[in-house]
Design a protein that fits this description.
Keywords: Cytoplasm, FAD, Flavoprotein, FMN, NADP, Oxidoreductase
Distance between the termini: 4 Å
Strand content: 15-25%
GO molecular function: flavin adenine dinucleotide binding; FMN binding; oxidoreductase activity
Radius of gyration: 27 Å
Number of strands: 15
Largest sheet: 6 strands, antiparallel
Cofactor: FAD; FMN
Protein name: FAD-binding FR-type domain-containing protein
Pfam family, one: FAD_binding_1
Strand order of the largest sheet: 6-4-10-2-3-7
Length: 553
């Protein structure tokens, strides 16, 4: 997920540090490199040429001693860790692993589990209602319901998880799901690399250096909950088989083929002058690591190098869609609701691609138990803000944190009313003093993907909330959230400028955030009689005051 300034200030930290170093009298040894993660060819498009030029500069500026030459890029360097058969695995644990037991359960340290449960039992939050770090907890999937009709092109799910312990979280916070690869994909890789015979034997990480006690030595590339695991478990739960391979992957597997044609082709993908070909072969068709290994069938990676060749399988973050009374089950357990679009599409080579995590979630049955991470998001919503009006822009699944916020504001209003009643002994309006909420939601069609439509209608009767849905395909011309913002310019201006309201923007990090910002600038310019510069300055001031918050992904 990307924060409020992740796009407009992607290189902000490097620029700020560079400027400060110059102020302190530092001399620039070499021009800093800046990257663009939204470039068609990814970060490598700018980083690779810069890194090669920097290397040449260093060698020219600080030449090696006579008779010494740089290590060739074609030399295979030993990794810090490799895999080896586990010598100390307990027989019972080894048998369970070999029989397909869940390694996450088999080797979780009891004291660590108790620590997690103790932490999970504390629902307290800091003053700003923030989660200081990622909390890990065990949850059960209660519901996995498709919201869009089966005839709609996109499968969007509403998922509900429960935890046995009360966990405090707020609007904008995120739940990290750790996916698993499908067994058939794991079997394909095991067969392709001839790892089937070793697949279920207990293995462990072992350092390649004999003595690591007296010097700093990095941790293994994969963090395991116990001393031993299996190749099958690593491939299922910890290593990514469907990721788009990076340049380093091609460079590494080129060492494990005796086919000169394959080796030359793999090495071509690592050269800056062939970056366009790398993009056309990998990123454009979304070709996976597994598919690359199947095409370069001469590559034979030793199983000991599995965790060095294959990237780690990362958890995927999803904004939590539940808030207020939805955060708790009837029996008092914590509840987490997610709104998830299942990633499935055809590439330019007409192959179907699926997101590793959403594919995992799509087939997850009710009752399934999994371990998740809970982490603070970037909206930093506080209870004190509930008295101020808010304008929420959340097209598509970007409405998830907006839903959390609406329910949370309703709950805060009820709590405030209770406090007033206790102090005055007079009945208080349950939503009195709550700032008006204005939600701009965007989707394709009212009948296909207007998420939580009935719920919004009910909430508008229970609290000062107005929902403006934009259906982009229900009429001859397309209508987006930015169009509705301009249509409601008087209300938007009054809530933001006159009443000091707060803006929340959530959803895709593509064109939407910029389009929304431009629409708001038009509101300040047209209704507030500002020129373009003043309108931009006003929104920049809102950002500094914490009144313009953005969470995009």
């Amino acid at each position: 997920m990307a924060g409020a300034d992740s796009l407009t200030r992607f290189n902000w930290a490097a620029r700020k540090l560079h400027k400060r170093l110059l102020q302190l009298g530092a001399k620039e040894a070499y021009p800093r490199g800046e990257a663009d993660e939204q470039h068609d060819e990814g970060l490598d498009a700018s980083f690779v040429p810069w890194s090669y030029d920097f290397r040449h500069h260093l060698l020219a500026k600080f030449p090696l001693a006579e008779g010494t030459s740089p290590i060739s890029e074609h030399v295979l360097l030993d990794p810090k860790w490799t895999l080896a058969l586990c010598q100390n695995a307990l027989n019972g644990s080894s048998k369970q692993l070999a029989n397909g037991g869940d390694e996450r359960t088999s080797f979780i340290d009891d004291s660590a589990e108790a620590k997690y449960e103790t932490e999970a039992a504390k629902p307290t939050r800091t003053k700003s209602a923030a989660i200081s770090a990622t909390q890990h907890l065990n949850v059960t999937l209660e519901k996995n319901r498709r919201l869009t009709p089966s005839t709609h092109w996109q499968d969007v799910r509403h998922l509900e998880f429960s935890s046995n312990h009360p966990i405090a979280y707020g609007p904008g916070d995120v739940l990290t799901i750790f996916p698993k690869n499908f067994p058939e994909d794991v079997d394909r890789l095991l067969q392709r690399l001839d790892w089937t015979d070793i697949a279920d034997k207990p293995i462990q990480f072992t350092p390649t250096k004999a003595d690591i006690e007296e010097v700093f030595y990095p941790s293994p590339p994969i963090s395991l909950p116990g001393p031993c695991t299996t190749i099958r478990t690593l491939l299922t739960e910890h290593l990514d088989l469907t990721a788009i391979p990076r340049r380093s992957f091609f460079s590494l597997i080129a060492h494990f083929t005796g086919n000169q044609f394959h080796k030359d082709r793999l090495l071509e993908f690592t050269k800056p002058e062939y970056i366009d070909e790398l993009y056309d072969y990998t990123t454009r068709p979304r070709r996976s690591i597994l598919e690359v290994l199947q095409e370069f069938e001469s590559v034979k990676v030793p199983w000991q190098w599995a965790a060095n060749v294959l990237p780690a399988l990362r958890g995927r973050q999803f904004s939590i869609a539940s808030g207020g009374q939805l955060k708790q089950t009837p029996d008092g357990s914590a509840r987490f609701e997610l709104l998830v679009a299942i990633v499935k599409y055809k590439t330019v080579i007409r192959k179907i691609r699926e997101g590793v995590c959403t594919r995992y979630l799509a087939y997850l049955p009710a009752g399934a138990k999994l371990r998740v991470g809970l982490q603070q998001g970037g909206l930093a919503v506080t209870k004190a803000e509930s008295e101020r009006p808010v304008i929420m822009i959340g097209p598509g699944t970007g409405v998830a944190p907006m839903r959390s916020l609406v329910w949370e504001r309703l709950q805060w209003a009820k709590e405030r009313a209770t406090e007033v009643e206790e102090k005055t002994n007079h009945h208080a309006n349950g939503v009195a003093g709550t700032g008006h909420s204005l939600l701009f939601f965007g989707c394709r069609s009212e009948t296909a993907d207007y998420f939580y439509q009935d719920e919004w209608q009910d909430l508008q009767r229970r609290m000062p909330l107005t929902v403006h849905p934009a259906f982009s395909r229900d009429q001859g011309h397309k209508v987006y959230v930015q169009n509705l913002i301009r249509q409601q310019s008087d209300s938007v201006y009054r809530l933001l400028h006159d009443s000091g309201g707060i803006v929340y923007v959530c959803g895709s990090s593509g064109k939407m955030p910029q389009a929304v910002r431009a629409a708001l600038a038009d509101v300040f310019r047209d209704v507030g009689r500002m020129d373009q510069k003043d309108a931009e300055s006003y929104m920049e001031a809102m950002e500094k005051e914490g009144r313009y918050k953005q969470e995009t992904w």
